[in-house]
Design a protein that fits this description.
homodimer; 233 residues; mainly alpha; 10 helices; DNA-binding
Amino acid sequence: MAITGTVDTTGKANAKHSGARAPRATNDTAAIGASGGKAPRTARGEKTLRKILTAALEEFGERGFSEASIVSITSRAEVALGTFYTYFDSKEALFQALVRDMSAQVRDHVAPELSGEGDGLERERRALAAFLRFAAEHKHVYRIIDEAEFVDPEGFRSHYETTASRIAARLGDAASRGELRQDESPLAHEVIAWALMGANVFLGLRFAVWGHSDADEVAAITNRLVRDGLGAR
Amino acid sequence: MAITGTVDTTGKANAKHSGARAPRATNDTAAIGASGGKAPRTARGEKTLRKILTAALEEFGERGFSEASIVSITSRAEVALGTFYTYFDSKEALFQALVRDMSAQVRDHVAPELSGEGDGLERERRALAAFLRFAAEHKHVYRIIDEAEFVDPEGFRSHYETTASRIAARLGDAASRGELRQDESPLAHEVIAWALMGANVFLGLRFAVWGHSDADEVAAITNRLVRDGLGAR
DNA sequence: ATGAAAGTTGAACCGACTTTCAACTTGGTT
DNA sequence: AACCAAGTTGAAAGTCGGTTCAACTTTCAT
């Protein structure tokens, strides 16, 4: 069951008896808690942690990192101030946990569009549309990842580097299937991946977070640009 | 004479006797001080303000807004703590002033490439290369504009909205000259402008701020993408 | 049923930072 | 030479919020 529609902390996924777990999804609450010996060991604890995470997402999303306060977060979560420190070592640690989680959320939300019908570029079009819809519905996520540049640089960098790598890999696949024109330079795929990613992020900011344009229309225009370029004839 | 190679506070530009001034550049120190009655009225004051701005650029650039402290800024500038409040109402006001200035710096640095030889897309290529070189040399500027999203949202938004508008206008011009394929939708130019801007920003982050790739090579790859697209044949 | 482990509570501590201000210095003008 | 507006100084006030902790409650395995 997802928290506030965003923090996905499916309790059962990590229950004592569960055998298999998703390969690399870190959706369980236990994994979200501070890396120290801070993971909840009880159903009650897990519920509390989940409340704190939900509250934190709202608080950081609305007020930003430095304006946000632990008092306000615990108050939103309806737990005592001290309870916070049962699960996290510091305000920063909480933020980092949230960044990791948000990064996974974005990936998981967009991933389904990347398999299925159409050539590589068509799938990128659908992925962008999905991303824009996700951004419009979860503006908090956007703000948190952006602010990670200053609060959790490691997390920020890692989010974008892995995202870019995935895009580059998909481009490589599409190219090997002959769906793309050939790129000579070894730099090319990486440069293009970062260019596409940057475009997507800014489109999300402008047309999903700040304004509300039709995701499919924006994605279509962008895809035409990516596929055919702007050059005459 | 530019401060630290970035904050351009050419004193003489605003001297009492100067007649003409650049149309819309806000390069003079007087204009940078807090809007209140805080502008320096003396050569000595102007020098002090300049020292504070230089120090602030370094401090914010290295430590980020919340880590940065007025004590540290005034100490870098070698002035007393209280002197700061002769020129700015608050830490935020200082940051805002810096954001406005950095925004102008970026524009002024890239602008020259946007006139001159070549078609519209070729000029955009040169502009991107210039931007990448500027970003590599002034990483502080990057960080400050990025952090403005949280510290000075107005300034942030205004920076990117005006930048996007300029790009869109240039696209319109190029299209009217027949250099671009025609776009039907009224949304198209704005969407494309934001996509290009986002691409440029992320390329700057990755290949100028984080890494040091050859600006011309990165710009060339990107330009090929923008001109011809990725689609096969 | 019971005891130990896990979780909860919130008052108080603590350090850090912004901002103020009244005394002092500087330098240009008359 | 003396005046005064502009600028400078730094100690201290004031605020604010993160973090700690010892007492208390709940849960759950035995």
